[in-house]
Design brief:
With 239 residues, the chain is α/β, with parallel strands linked by helices. It has a domain of 165 residues: 3-Layer(aba) Sandwich (Rossmann fold), CATH 3.40.50.10310. It has eight helices and four strands, in the order αβαβαβαβαααα. It has a four-stranded parallel beta sheet with strand order 2-1-3-4, with helices on both faces. Helix 2 packs across helix 8. The two termini are 23 Å apart.
């Protein structure tokens, strides 16, 4: 159930029976030579919408720009400052709380959002004691992590990974890119800012072999992620 395709009376009816909502958040940033710049947002949105449709849970539009300052040395990347993102998440929560929503489940597709989102949750919980926020990173859900380990092993890497490319392509196969064999990418290490990130990881990949990505794997990942997200969500509602 996508919020953008509902009407206000339909939302009012929804709130008469349940007050939970899924909020996909992602990023607009480089994903190596073959990954779509919108990968993180496309993946978070796809997992949340698939789960929401299956279980009748309302899903907000995706927050498609996140905290990606370290990717700004690559053309096309866009970012919010952490303070801006905190303010945006706080304002979204204010709006939803005003209508009577009490459980806000953020479905995240970008590791760079995690610290900032949790800082925002501290402010949100202080402002709205009746609200509960949680975050699920789709790529860390146990069923997803197990599938990735079994199918990709060390070729997964840490950024611009074949798993996230696969999921984005399964959701939007018309935008699949034809990959080519790649030399090994540098593994994750400490970095300071965007220019340092690009110097360490010149084509944008971090330990990832994008040649392993496929639409077929993406379809399996979507099934695993949506199912596991629903399991986690229902457990959270019952806690």
């Amino acid at each position: 159930m996508q919020l953008r395709f509902t009407t206000w009376p339909e939302v009012e009816g929804y709130l008469a029976t349940r007050t939970d909502i899924l909020i996909p958040i992602g990023a607009t940033e480089q994903h190596g030579p073959f990954g779509l710049i919108g990968t993180d947002s496309l993946c978070a949105e796809g997992v949340a919408n698939t789960a929401g449709e299956r279980a009748g849970i309302l899903v907000t539009p995706v927050l498609s720009v996140g905290m990606s300052l370290h990717h700004l040395a690559f053309p096309g990347s866009m970012s919010l400052q952490p303070s801006t993102m905190i303010a945006v998440l706080r304002d979204l929560a204010d709006s939803l709380a005003h209508h009577g929503f009490t459980r806000l489940h953020f479905v995240n597709g970008h590791g760079g959002n995690i610290a900032t989102a949790h800082a925002a949750f501290s402010e949100i919980h202080h402002r709205h004691p009746q609200l509960r926020c949680r975050m699920s990173n789709w790529y860390e859900l146990p069923a997803v992590a197990g599938l990735v380990k079994a199918r990709l092993g060390d070729s997964e890497g840490a950024h611009a990974t074949p798993s996230e490319l696969s999921l984005s392509w399964a959701l939007h196969p018309e935008h699949q890119r034809q990959t080519a064999p790649q030399a090994g990418a540098a593994v994750m290490t400490g970095f300071c800012g965007a220019e340092d990130f690009r110097a360490l990881f010149p084509d944008g990949r971090v330990g990832a072999d994008q040649h392993r990505a496929s639409v077929a794997l993406g379809a399996e990942l979507l099934e695993a992620a949506a199912g596991e997200l629903l399991r986690v969500h229902e457990g959270w509602l019952g806690a």
